[in-house]
Amino acid sequence: MSHPMAALSPVGRLRLARCVVEDGWPLRRAAERFQVSATTAARWAARYRQLGPAGMADRSCRPHSSPRRTPARVERRIIKLRVVRRWGPARIGYLLGLHPSTVHRVLTRYRLARLAWLDRATGQVVRRYEHAQPGDLVHVDIKKLGRIPDGGGWRTQGRAVGRRNGRATTTVRSNGHPVIGYVYLHNAVDDHSRLAYSEILDDERKETAAGFWLRARAWFDSCGIQIKRVLTDNGACYRSHTFAAALGPITHKRTRPYRPQTNGKVERFNRTLLEEWAYARPYQSDRERLAAFPIWLHFYNHHRGHTALAGLPPASRVTNLSGQYS
Questions:
Q1: Sign (positive/negative) of CA torsion 9, 10, 11, 17?
Q2: Exposed, middle or buried: residue 310 (CB in 10 Å: 0-12, 13-18, 19+)?
Q3: Above pLDDT 70, what percent of the chain?
Q4: At CB < 8 A and 24+ separation, what contacts does 57-61 make?
Q5: Residue 245, number of CB atoms within 10 A of its CB
Q6: How many CA atoms lie within 13 A of 311 on its CB side?
Q7: d(Cα 221, Cα 301) in Å, to the nearest integer?
Q8: What are phi and psi of 213, to 5 degrees?
Q9: CA 99 → CA 81, 113, 155, 192, 296, distances in Å?
Q10: What is the pLDDT of residue 323?
Q11: Cβ of 212: how many Cβ atoms within 10 Å?
Q12: Range name among 9-13, 22-26, 114-118, 133-137 with the lowest pLDDT average
């Protein structure tokens, strides 16, 4: 395929060459006629004399020799480190004394998959999927999150305060709220739309998980999403009879042990939640962070562009969702 800025197509080159070689046109006259330089006209005329019409086709821009190319022995070491240890270009470059960009070019040349596409445990390319309709599968998980003491945690007060808080036992205020300890974010994410329902609760017991699911199911029902399957990990609360009773006729699927990638959509939601809400700014108290959560969750569902949805928010895949345009 010709370069988009090329003055001549293969047919135009052939006409130019024939004007010079067969019709005897001077190079300058032919160059002026086809709006190219005399040097270009001479090059195509020479190729026509040597190869005929076949010489008018495009040629590869690759050089005939690459004296500064990375030696084959070094390339083999790069590939071995990538396959065996699953290291990135920076770590491989530091070990072999190469610039990371050089390692990256070698990996690209041999079309090795990016680390983000691989399962780190097995080295196999992760098979990504997406169910066709909302409700076909809902991912459920729990994220444990440390509370923020009044006045701020280690991010505002320093590491010494953080270590002291970590050694302290949970105490309770007069209003019944703990000062130090953990909260548990129970999350449910629809596989097709990535629409999320989340609650911040005090524990991860079976009764709490079952109650969360009943409220999550009611919320999805209000959005017009009829749930068919639920995917969880193998946590004790999800293996309980209480949670099974809360699910009712909905099919319950579990991930393989030590394979959180299977529940990857809710795991990615957990990461987004931490980056954009929990650790987005230094909160001065746990109450301040909790108050910001409903605002962020609405933004995530209705306004935040999702890369897997071509930059559209999850609400764009749910018809007539309340609050979609607010």
A1: positive
A2: exposed
A3: 83
A4: 57/10, 58/1, 58/2, 58/10
A5: 11
A6: 0
A7: 16
A8: -65, -40
A9: 15, 20, 35, 41, 41
A10: 54
A11: 24
A12: 114-118
Give tens-digit pLDDT for 121-161: 666 766 667 888 999 999 999 999 988 877 766 566 555 65
Give Rg (Cα) of the chain: 31
Q: pLDDT-derived band of residue 163, with 50, 70 and 90 as boundaries?
A: low
Q: How wide is the angle at C-alpha 158 spanned by C-alphas 156 and 161, nearest 5°?
A: 105
Q: How many residues make up the chain in this entry?
A: 326
224: left (phi over 0), alpha (psi -120 to 50) or beta: left
Gap between the Cα atoms of 88 and 103, Å rounded: 9
Q: Which residues contact 107 (CB under 8 A, 6 or more apart)?
A: 78, 79, 82, 89
169 vs 149 pLDDT, higher one? 149
142 DSSP β-pair partners: 186
pLDDT(119) > 80: no
Sole residue written with tokens 């409220």: 215
Instruction: Tell how far CA 215 is from the center of its chain.
Output: 29
Reduced to 3 states (helix: H, G, I; strand: E, B; else coil), residue 166 is helix
